[in-house]
Amino acid sequence: MHEMSICESIVNVIEEQAAAQGFGRVRRVRLEIGPLAGVETEALRFSFDVVTRGSLAEGAALEIIETPVTGWCMPCGQPVAVRERFDACPECGSYQVQITGGEELRIKDLEVD
Ligand SMILES: [Zn+2]
What we know:
By secondary structure, the chain is of the alpha+beta class. The chain contains two helices and six strands.
């Protein structure tokens, strides 16, 4: 499962941070995930519980913040609100919209002991 390897890399990052900053326990992990990141949040939650078992993030709460999809319309020369990739610009109907946000998958912050 794709989400399993995402969680493994999250745990790796947490362990690196723990070594660098000297914390021993993680209470909460906040992730920012865009709708275009291709991640199933339910599968991610399940994988997180499995992968963190026995790590310093065991039992940590997983908070998922969904970021908006944003685009840049080239004919309009301005940022526009789109819902997904290949959506037309709501202002001019052009398909020359570059996706500028919504693909992120990152750790926003950690709450640690
Ligand atoms: Zn436009």
